[in-house]
Amino acid sequence: MKSVLITPEGIQKNLKNIKPLDAICEYIWNGFDAEATEIKITLHENGLGIINMITVEDNGIGIDYDELKYKFQPFNDSKKADLSAKTNHSLPHGRKGIGRLTFFAFAQNARWETIYEKGGKRYKYFIAMNKDSLNQYDDNGEKPPEQVYDIGTGTKVIFTQLESLDKKEIITRIKEEFFWFLELNEENGFSIIVDNDRIDYADYIIKKENIAPPVECKQEYEIRFVQWKVKLGNEYSRIYYIGSDNNEKYKETTKLNKQADHFFHSVFIKSSYFDKFCFKQSEIEGQGNFFPDKSDDEYKLVMRGINDFLLKYRREYLKTASDKYIAQLVDENVYPEFDTASVIGAYQKKELDNLVGTLYAAQPKIFTNLNVDNKKITLQLLKLIMDNGNKYELFNILQNIVDLDEDEMKELSDILQYTTLNNITRTIKFLCDRQKVIQALKEVVYTKPFDAYEVAHVQKLVENHYWIFGEQYNLISSAEPDFELALKGLILKTAGVEEDVDIDHIDKNKEMDLYMIRQDRQGKVTENVVVELKRPKIPLGEKHISQIKRYMRVIKSDTRFNAGNVKWTFYLVGNKFDSTGYIEDEIESHMNYGEQHLIHCQDKGLTKIYAFKWSEIFEDYSRRHDFLMERLKLEEKLWLETHSSADDAVNSVIDNSAIMPEPVIPKRQN
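Above: the chain sequence. Below: its structure as tokens.
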């Protein structure tokens, strides 16, 4: 038996934090350090399905017997680690000379069976260690190595008497450790195989894209960018320089290692230009001007192209990420609350969303470095500043809560200045476009020569601008959906799944004009809204109320429409009521509920029907918007603008800035 130069106390101090899955990864790294291109891991199971032995086999160069004393006897002293640090390479990986002992974290015994080549001949021998005596190892039973024939070099490590291990967890940990390394060595064919299945890390990739070098470059380059879903283990986001032989020459961090933004990425650049490139100052000294270095104009040019690509890509990525982050803040009850049932509240939230999204995209650490209470305070202050338009206060706040350098502050200043001006312009346009919609709708429903139709004109306009009935609704379906289509949309919106539905009712094929829902912060439906629109020249009467009540009966027949204490609200809208006085009588008989326009109420107030004239809807809109129009001094021509036909009126506003999101479920195609 040979002794390792370490005391038990030293082992305990250096290895106490080693975890079983990390230890397994160390033996894979050892294989790649030994110039292997393939690592095979076999998880042996007993009759009970429990992993009772693990083998890690590589096709590397093996362990030279004459170097054994330098590899196994010294402890906490690794030439591999020193070499890696000096050359800025991914290999050799090393672990301060202790990687070979980490098996103690998951196994009682470890046995190395290695084949190496020397002097044109190949030799085989073994090394064995036990967890209870880590400062000793069995050196091939004190026998010299045995010469072998027709066998490739490499090392197999066999671990026995294991701790409890799970195959799925082992595979996941290996992927987490090596995905970037396998991508780096993709053209070298590097692979890790677990029980005959090759490790596939495609699900860790968000995007892979080739970067075109600047056209001014004199050399040829293959540049590959990868954005990852997860952090690269202990690796930073880096640029890897690869020579014409596909081997890594050097690596360095990119300029975008900002942990707060979760923009995990790698850039792989291959060119013969790097074959003899001097990456470090120590390499340049004494070389004269024979080989290129970082002062070379060619290098500066290609790096500028890469950095410009990364900055642009990150900006676009963070804009998308900011939307998700805002939704997360809302779900966590950190975001300021707004009365989104009103146009003012809905628009205030939209503007704060835009401000927070802009700041997050420019500098995520403004928010992500804060605890919950500080996030609430910061967001409330941003809301206040947004309302007051005082950017000076904003910069004072930012400088106090996060460390921004001069360039970062300038970037924020430029963005916010543009955003403020853009918001003013967009706000005015938004309100003008809403007024244009109201004007067009008035013409459609009031101009008799237009002879407007229900579907082609009234419904087409309203389904694109359903804010007329409330800011807080999501449109599930439009264009006369039947009830099965409406239910399909409800399930998709609330459960996130699309499925075929079948309603057992004689009137299931009746068609509503619009179907909307209102959801609370947790996504639960609190109100279903059905809107029935009538052609302008058709007066509303008893038969139209009966039509809506048939809708109610279909809805009551299917429990999926009636989960929990959910309100059902029906709006019947037309130009006027008929001469029978039926609707007026119904409104008067429901006056005791204290609600205007109410004509039916049941289920303890959970189901209600309202009848509206368009004139009443326009009057309500005016009450909610007139003070804004007055403050903004919108031009009178908005109210005077006319159109030549119903088609002209509808088409003029069908897709202006006031348009709402499209329905969740479009109408079935016949």
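Residues 108 and 131 are 5 Å apart (CA to CA).
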